[in-house]
């Protein structure tokens, strides 16, 4: 259902369309997304559903729990903590980002994730993963703590080569960005036809072929379909960008993106850069806020 935006964040149904927020990944480029989300939450902008990929899943779940500022807060606090991420963690666990620290200690102890708010919010929250056996996307509506704790979100953000596969209900999963980086088509297919898309690359960006494909084939000989998906990823991604641009021109999507390439690494440890990218997201969202409000209220003929 499409929502009318009210000052206190309350929602009135104005027709039978559903509004969605679609969040691209990008590792620490996701701090841009966090800045966008915080401005939208502060403004009381509600959606019927959110779908996140990789960092978009890790950070996007805070929209449903309503935790403004949490993404920036814990990343600033732990970006230089040896328990959080880095080469030592990778050597010790096989994961660039520590599973017990990032997905247990931080959300359950150090900066608690508000599961009560998450469960009470009727907004749907979806994550995208990749089945390593088939190379196909897996779309999952995440239901919170009882739904395999944080494993679905962890799977969505588990980058190949620097992460172990995550096993859930017989499926072996890795990063959703391998198979569907910006799941506009999927969200539209399940009824979300009024969508705001947050990208973490500028408008002129085009993905190039991954030079690590030979290494991928050596690392994943049992999963050729996934490696093939990685080898074609730049083609699929650029086609998705073209479809998004076409829909944007026709007024069928509203896109928020950075004006220029974000100066941040996948494992950024500089708090100033983290905050700077977050602030760029806030700035982009503030510039787009009136358009977002109008877009979500607008009825299609």
Structure description:
- By secondary structure, this protein is α/β, with parallel strands linked by helices.
- It is 43% helix and 16% strand.
- It contains 12 helices and 10 strands.
- Strand 5 and strand 6 form a beta hairpin.
- Helix 1 packs parallel to helix 2 and helix 1 packs across helix 12.
- The radius of gyration is 18 Å and the shape is globular.
- The N terminus is likely disordered.
List keywords for this structure.
two-stranded antiparallel ribbon, 43% helix, 301 residues, 10 strands, 12 helices, eight-stranded mixed beta sheet, alpha/beta
Quick overview of this protein structure:
The protein is an alpha/beta fold. It has helices at 30-42, 55-65, 70-78, 87-93, 99-110, 115-120, 151-156, 184-189, 213-219, 224-231, 233-249, 271-297; strands spanning 3-5, 11-13, 18-23, 49-53, 124-131, 137-141, 166-168, 171-175, 192-198, 253-256. Helix 1 (30-42) packs parallel to helix 2.
Question: What is the secondary structure topology, with strand pairs?
Answer:
Layout: E1 3-5, E2 11-13, E3 18-23, H1 30-42, E4 49-53, H2 55-65, H3 70-78, H4 87-93, H5 99-110, H6 115-120, E5 124-131, E6 137-141, H7 151-156, E7 166-168, E8 171-175, H8 184-189, E9 192-198, H9 213-219, H10 224-231, H11 233-249, E10 253-256, H12 271-297
Parallel strand pairs: 3-4, 3-9, 4-5, 9-10
Antiparallel strand pairs: 1-2, 5-6, 5-8, 7-8
Helix pairs in contact: 1-2, 1-12
């Amino acid at each position: 259902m499409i929502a009318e935006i009210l000052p206190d964040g309350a929602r009135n149904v104005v027709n039978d369309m559903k509004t969605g927020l679609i969040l691209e990944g990008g590792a620490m480029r996701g701090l841009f997304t966090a800045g966008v989300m915080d401005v939208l939450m502060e403004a009381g902008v509600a959606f019927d559903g959110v779908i996140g990929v990789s960092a978009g899943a890790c950070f996007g779940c805070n929209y449903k729990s309503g935790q403004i500022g949490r993404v920036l807060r814990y990343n600033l606090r732990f970006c230089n903590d040896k328990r959080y991420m880095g080469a030592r963690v990778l050597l010790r666990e096989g994961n660039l980002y520590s599973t017990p620290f990032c997905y247990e200690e931080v959300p359950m102890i150090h900066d608690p994730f508000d599961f009560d708010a998450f469960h009470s919010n009727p907004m749907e929250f979806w994550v995208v993963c990749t089945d390593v056996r088939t190379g196909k996307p897996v779309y999952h509506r995440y239901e919170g703590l009882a739904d395999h704790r944080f494993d679905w979100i962890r799977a969505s953000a588990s980058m190949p080569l620097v992460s172990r596969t995550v096993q859930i209900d017989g499926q072996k999963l890795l990063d959703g960005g391998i198979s569907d980086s910006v799941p506009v088509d999927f969200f539209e297919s399940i009824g979300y036809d009024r969508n705001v898309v947050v990208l973490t690359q500028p408008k002129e960006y085009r993905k190039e072929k991954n030079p690590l494909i030979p290494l991928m084939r050596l690392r994943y000989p049992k999963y050729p379909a996934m490696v093939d998906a990685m080898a074609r990823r730049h083609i699929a991604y650029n086609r998705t960008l073209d479809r998004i641009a076409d829909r944007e021109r026709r007024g069928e999507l509203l896109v928020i993106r950075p004006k220029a390439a974000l100066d941040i690494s996948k494992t950024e440890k500089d708090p100033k850069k983290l905050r700077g990218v977050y602030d760029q997201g806030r700035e982009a969202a503030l510039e787009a806020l009136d358009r977002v409000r109008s877009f979500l209220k607008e009825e299609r003929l």
